[in-house]
Amino acid sequence: MKRIGRLGLAMLVAASACTLNEPIDDTAPRTPDPAARPGGTLRVGIGQPRSIDPSLVTRRDPAGWLVVSVMCDTAVDIDPVTGELRPALARRFQSTERGTLVTATLREDVRLHDGSDVGALDLSYPISRAAQPQTVSPSAELLSDVNGFERLQENETEEETLLGVRAVGPLDLEIALLRNRGDFTRVLTHPITAAMPRETLVDARRDEADEEYGKRPVCAGPYRLAEPWSPGGAEIRLVRFEGYHGANAAYTQGGRGYADEIVFRIYPDQRAQLAAYAAGEIDIAHVPPDARTEAQALPGTLVDTPTLRLDYLGLPTPVEPYRNRGVRVALSMALDRERISREVYGGGRRPASAILPPPLGEQLHRPDACARTAPATGDVERARTVLASSGTDLRGQTIRLHFNDEFGHRELAQAVAAQWAEAFGVQVELQPSEWEAYRQRGLSPTGFDGPFRMSISVEYPSALDYLEPLFSSSRSGDTNLSRFGSRSFDLALEDDARRAVTPEDQALQFHRLEDIVCGEMPVIPLLYGSTHYLFASDRIGSAIGSFTAASTALPLLREIFVRG
Questions:
Q1: 211 with 338, same domain?
Q2: Which one of 200, 227, 358, 560 has the minimum C-beta count within 10 Å?
Q3: How far lies 69's CA from each of 105, 168, 252, in Å?
Q4: How far apart are CA 19 and CA 508, in angstroms?
Q5: Is residue 219 part of a domain?
Q6: Are strands 261-266 and 235-240 parallel, antiparallel or unpaired?
Q7: Which residue has the higher pLDDT, 213 or 5?
Q8: CATH number, domain containing residue 180
Q9: What pTM was estimated for this model as a whole?
């Protein structure tokens, strides 16, 4: 099956291949605040979900993702502070050293919301369901390296399950991959690996009642639907599921949560959520980026959390003068990212001096990985020195800066143009276009002829899913729109990252890859996305001191308690 290039705010899924063979600690990561007590009702403002079916939710639908995150456990979870993988439905999981086989052993005491016990088939079939073309899961491509995915997608078999996903025992699951992809254990954190009743799903598929199932999904988690979801309705109400296993090692209290009930009140937009918060109707509101000042004037705690999005400027490396490394580095060094964030986004986005964003966790994200070549506040004098050393004089020359003319990108392009003009005496010619034409220009045989604005995000937190799509020679002209080619990067990608065994080894190898591209600067990191939530901290608190999960930037509802 041909890979599909996805640009802009795309979920770029790449094959990773590092191995996790060490035992995972099956204990809670931290002690909760003594003030955290179970009870009460938590009221959360959200937009209208596209779906609350675990097979269909995506990070592009934060409302649906948030509901599912407290309703359904996944096979593996993520520590909300450090980003480390933690046991959830699976008490043990690993990838073989060759990275082509992932195994998971489920807990014995897990029950679905319908009261039935969870077995390996209740995990294997939902994974296959996400890959079935008739499901139309936006996350199906996460399974593209699983044996049988292509045949299932192209309807070459009457089977409804992936050949490579097998229950090899009552609680044991194997996932066979077509190529080395050791970090597939991170895919196990995605909602497509939520346990759901196999027989119910099969019956729904046969009766063409999948849509109805999506209104009342049954999974294994601390909360269940009080009544079926009505798309377009005013709220979604979750109540505590007393049969929850309570052994999710990513959270305090084993992931049980603290509130007895969580009510999601649905609003047409974030402005309406903010108004509802001000009126005391909800405890948590998603704040529009342009309303931060207004939100700060309200009682409570405004939390700014970086997202998985990286905004960057690509540089067409086959084209002069961008073929010259010194020119690329100089253009990057001249930019004051903090000023751009402040003047263009009112401080609503974070300066990026690295490729790998903060939500990847403490082990992978290095805030200053590219600080020498992409300083947060810029360094014009050093940039001029580097440019002079490269033998290039940009004074009087013209740079064509491409961008898709929407979502405030024009203001960003204008800010970049002004800073380059001031630093180098260069003329910057803005080249706006609508998205489809812009996308086609990037994918054309010649590509862009000057710097271009772009962004990348991922569907699950994987470092390699940033590094491989943007910089691998094998992705040149597809997701690698700078057409960057580096033998040292490609060799490191193949010889080192794919052989790493432990999480520590993985981090070191990803850092090596990041160091190469920070030095070469084929893309200029600019800003990390950021999201803002307002919490009524006089009424609610967090058992671990954090109101949002670092890996998702969403409210950490399992750790939020209602004050007595």
A1: no
A2: 227
A3: 21, 28, 15
A4: 13
A5: yes
A6: antiparallel
A7: 213
A8: 3.40.190.10
A9: 0.89
| 455-467 pLDDT per residue, tens | 999 988 889 899 9
User: 3-state SS of 15-33?
Assistant: CCCCCCCCCCCCCCCCCCC
Q: What is the pLDDT of residue 168?
A: 96
- Sequence letter at residue 53: D
Q: CA–CA separation, 308 vs 560, rounded Å?
A: 23
Provide the residue range defining the domain that includes 429. 307-530
Same domain for 241 and 312, yes or no, is no
Nearest to 300 by CA among 563, 27, 489: 563
Q: How far apart are CA 358 and CA 307, in angstroms?
A: 7
> Based on the domain organization, do 519 and 555 belong to the same domain?
no
Single-letter amino acid, residue 381: E
Helix/strand/coil percent split, the chain, to 5: 30, 20, 50
- Least confident among 220-224, 250-254, 457-461: 457-461
Q: Where are the alpha helices (DSSP H) in 347-495?
A: 380-389, 409-424, 435-443, 464-471, 487-495
Q: Using CA atoms, how far apart are residues 420 and 409, in angstroms rounded to an integer?
A: 17
Q: Are 63 and 193 within one domain? A: yes
Total residue count of the chain as it appears in this document: 564
State the CB neighbour count (10 A cutoff) for residue 206: 9
Closest CA to 529 of 333, 289, 273: 289
Strands (E), 272-318: 284-287, 301-314
Where do runs of H (alpha helix) occur along 425-549? 435-443, 464-471, 487-495, 503-520
433 and 321 within one domain: yes
C-alpha span between 445 and 29 (Å, rounded) = 50
CA distance 506 to 497: 6
Cα–Cα distance for residue pair 397/394, rounded to 1 Å: 5
- Token pair, residue 32, equals 């909760």
* Same-domain check for residues 366 and 411: yes
In the numeric block, the tokens 């003047």 are attached to 343
Q: Which of 340, 382, 373, 378 is nearest to 354 (CA)?
A: 373
Q: Is 331 exposed, middle or buried (0-12, 13-18, 19+ CB in 10 A)?
A: buried
- Contact at 8 Å (CB) between 277 and 45? yes
What is the DSSP secondary structure assignment for residue 130, as one 8-state letter?
Answer: H
Q: Are 526 and 312 in contact (CB under 8 A)?
A: yes
Distance, CA of 364 to CA of 506 (rounded, Å): 9
User: Which residues neighbour 494 within 8 Å (Cβ) at sequence distance 6 or greater?
Assistant: none
> What's 403's DSSP letter?
E
Summarize pLDDT for 38-57 with one digit per residue, the tens. Answer: 999 999 999 999 999 999 99
Return the SS3 of 146.
Answer: strand
DSSP per residue, 548-563: B-TTT-SB-GGGEEE-
Does residue 210 sit in the same domain as residue 345? no
State the CB neighbour count (10 A cutoff) for residue 124.
23
- Is residue 419 exposed (0-12), middle (13-18) or buried (19+ Cβ within 10 Å)? buried
Paired tokens of 435 = 């998205």
- The closest of 368, 436, 423 to 393, measured between CA atoms, is 423
CATH number of the CATH domain containing 482: 3.10.105.10
Measured CA to CA, the distance from residue 260 to residue 489 in angstroms comes to: 51
Name the β-bridge partners of 398.
427
